[in-house]
Design brief:
This protein is an alpha+beta fold. 39% of the residues lie in helices and 21% in strands. It has a four-stranded antiparallel beta sheet with strand order 1-2-3-6, covered by helices on one side. A four-stranded antiparallel beta sheet has the order 5-4-7-8, with no helix packed on it.
Length: 249
């Protein structure tokens, strides 16, 4: 990949995600020694990536090891991959390939660590649909994180949950992630909102730690909100906001 003199400013997200080849990583590290903005941006992306990973992590059941060891004999070995070309891939293609690999790895881990019951109760079509949805979700999140114009803001809800919003004006998309979110309680869910000049418009639901892509039009919004609503959500907030955080610009 050939970089123009100012291209290093656009590589902070890819650096934080480990998506640069050796020459590009070296160039960015050399550039960041004299660029405080890029150092700060790379640190924020790394922290966001860590929050995303922590938000979807799960403790494996006590029986997981025995189940995995018992299943090993029935798993067919995959032949080694032989690179078709030595040409360094573009960052976009590399991020997409890594996103798909991460999504597949997440699905495999779910099946291996907690998935014996899943295999018993769901058919292959259900698993394929879940894998496809996981790939699409992770592709979308990674695309926002790796966007050259990605911007990040962190906040804390009144119930103690830590939140992060990453936006891309070019894609007109925003990702919301939270950790430490208390259980909403029976008949309740957390609802996200986009504040359009004082008008709160629904932007999706979230009922536990994790990451979602905000629905709606973040380009015209000034802030993102979070409130506790009845299961299924509400057309307008029915409780005081737990969070009202200005979107990054």
């Amino acid at each position: 990949m050939t970089n123009h003199p100012n291209d290093s400013h656009t590589l902070a997200a890819a650096y934080a995600l480990g998506a640069l080849d050796d020459p590009e990583r070296g160039d960015f590290e050399a550039h960041s020694r004299t660029c405080e903005a890029c150092r700060q941006e790379a640190a924020e992306f790394a922290a966001t990536a860590a929050r995303l990973a922590a938000a979807v992590s799960q403790t494996p059941p006590a029986t997981a090891k025995a189940q995995v060891m018992a299943a090993i004999d029935g798993v067919r070995q995959v032949p080694p991959r032989i690179p078709a070309s030595s040409t360094a891939p573009a960052i976009g293609a590399l991020l997409r390939r890594r996103a798909v690999s991460l999504a597949l790895a997440a699905v495999v881990a779910a099946v291996a660590l907690g998935g014996v019951a899943l295999w018993q109760t769901q058919n292959a079509q259900d698993l394929e649909r879940q894998a496809r949805q996981s790939r699409q979700q992770l592709d979308a999140i990674t695309g926002i994180l790796a966007a050259p114009d990605a911007r990040t803001v962190h906040g804390k809800a009144s119930n103690g949950a830590l939140t992060t919003v990453v936006t891309s004006e070019r894609q007109n998309r925003a990702a919301f992630t939270t950790t430490g979110l208390p259980a909403p309680g029976a008949g309740k869910t957390y609802q996200l909102w986009l504040d359009h000049d004082g008008t709160m418009r629904p932007a999706g639901l979230i009922d536990h730690d994790g990451t979602v892509i905000l629905t709606g039009n973040p380009a015209d919004a000034g802030a993102v909100g979070l409130s506790l609503e009845p299961t299924g959500g509400s057309p307008q907030p029915t409780t005081d906001p737990l969070l009202l955080m200005a979107l990054p610009t």
